[in-house]
């Protein structure tokens, strides 16, 4: 039986007079990989940023683990977001990955052990002393992934984690996503353009179109029997607006 972890209730977000999210309601269950898909500019990043408390909704509410968002700081400490364009600090790979542990006050030995473990998971062992800004694009993305998982978040928000990567790096990142979920039971929300990625790794899918969540379905449902004609068109690769 699915256990509710995040409840998004009648969420609205406007920037000026532009409505970016319109009355979005959605439940995300513990331990699932939930994919948010939809054309560019339709509100995927905005929704992830709201889940990460980086934006305040204009209306509606968020409930984490049955608790209303007043416990924001505690909730934020247990989640992590990999940004569409990750910021890379001009320091070593080790320092970049250690950041989330340092702000959480972890001791030196724990930091070392967890950073090394995270670098192993993302396939970057031995890179810890390299300047992060000298990594290749694919390596930098995997380092950002290590930074996101290093403190064992309960909730991992991934914004286009494989955009602009070659197929080998895409496969590696997808493998890591599945490994993190199966080993740690992490709940993962992933925004992606990539229908094939959804097919490979998601459990359920939500399609955002013009700020509306037009369909939420199990993956097999969305590919074989979409409930909405616009979802069906999007899945077929047609332009929808
Ligand atoms: N801080 C902001 N101020 C004004 N407009 C914003 C702001 N943040 C986002 N928007 C607008 O909100 C809309 C949705 O943006 P968002 O980044 O959520 O889309 P997206 O679905 O992630 O797109 P993409 O697939 O291209 O990443 C866009 O029109 C964007 O320009
Ligand atoms: Mg985006």
Features:
single chain, 241 residues, alpha/beta, Rossmann fold, 2 domains, four-stranded antiparallel β-sheet, 10 strands, 37% helix, globular, binds adenosine-5'-triphosphate, binds magnesium ion, AAA+_ATPase, hydrolase, EC 3.6.3.27, Phosphate import ATP-binding protein PstB 2
Major beta sheet summary: 6 strands, mixed
> Over the alpha carbons, how many angstroms does the gyration radius reach?
18 Å
Low-confidence stretches: none
CATH-defined fold name of the largest domain: Rossmann fold
Give the CATH architecture of the largest domain: 3-Layer(aba) Sandwich
For the biggest β-sheet, the strand order reads 6-7-8-3-9-10
Bound ligands, named by name, code or SMILES: adenosine-5'-triphosphate, magnesium ion
CATH class of the largest domain: Alpha Beta
Could you estimate the helical fraction of the residues in percent? 25-40%
Q: Please state the structural category.
A: alpha/beta
GO biological process, one term: phosphate ion transmembrane transport
GO molecular function: ATP binding; ATP hydrolysis activity; phosphate transmembrane transporter activity
Pfam families: ABC_tran
Domain ABC transporter: 6-235
